[in-house]
Amino acid sequence: MKTLFDQPERYDEFPNKGIGITGNEKNYFIEGRLGLLLEKMKNRNPEHILDFGCGTGATSSFLQRLFPGSQIHATDYAEAAVAFAKTQNKSQYIHFQRFNEWMQSNERYDLVYINCVFHHIEPPERQAIMDLLYAKMKEEGEIWIFENNPLNPGTRLAMYLNPFDKGVKKIWPSELGRLTARSGFREKDKWFLFYFPQWLSVFRFLEKLLLKLPFGGQYAVQAEKG
User: Fold this and answer.
1) Mean pLDDT over all residues of the chain?
2) pLDDT value at position 4?
3) In which domain, by residue range, is 180 found?
4) Distances from the Cα of 2 to the Cαs of 101, 174, 224, in angstroms?
């Protein structure tokens, strides 16, 4: 049976049913996440980056521009999305793989980027995925996991309106922290972002002061191997 994830040409349409309530498009959120990552990584220059749960590859392209010369490895469980991503991104620095191909690869990563993937993984399977990611990272490599914040009412509404998120099990920061710790990661920090929708953008200058207040639309866990 064909699922929503087998319709990559509609990957912008479905999430926009949710994030549209903020008045922003997906690139605003991609740039916000990667801006935080770049600032907190303190000029580290990862050679091999994994975009885990890459969808149609929009963030992969941003990562390549953010870290020119780095090799971006991108994978997704939805094979239709990976095939579509290959047609949209022709850079020699971006390599898309189906999930099974990626599982069999021997590549190791300096940086792993994950956005809104774990709430699509069934809770009993989450630890095994985290363990796999740990095994595929280089020593002292960093993992950045962004997730929707269940404490934020706007986020809860956006997830309710997004067809991709029907029936998912939200993941709280505390659970994500336990998953990373059990795998062997050392948590470096936790951040909260996206407080103000477009019509309150005049207040966005305050967001850098609110990174520790646990009510932003998304949160990020920054951890390292070693």
Assistant:
1) 93
2) 65
3) 4-39+46-225
4) 22, 34, 37
The CATH code of the domain that includes 61 is 3.40.50.150
Predicted confidence (pLDDT) at residue 75 exceeds the cutoff of 70: yes
Per-residue model confidence as pLDDT tens digits over 29-71: 999 999 999 999 887 889 999 999 999 999 999 999 999 989 9
Number of domains the chain contains? 1
State the DSSP H helix or E strand holding residue 79, giving kind and residue range, or none if neither: helix 79-88
Tokens 């002061």 locate to: 209
Q: Sheet harboring 48-52: ordered strands across?
A: 94-98, 71-76, 48-52, 109-115, 137-148, 218-225, 185-193
Contact 185, 223 (CB under 8 A): yes
| Three-class SS state of 166 | coil
Q: Is the dihedral of CA 111, 43, 26, 150 positive or negative?
A: positive
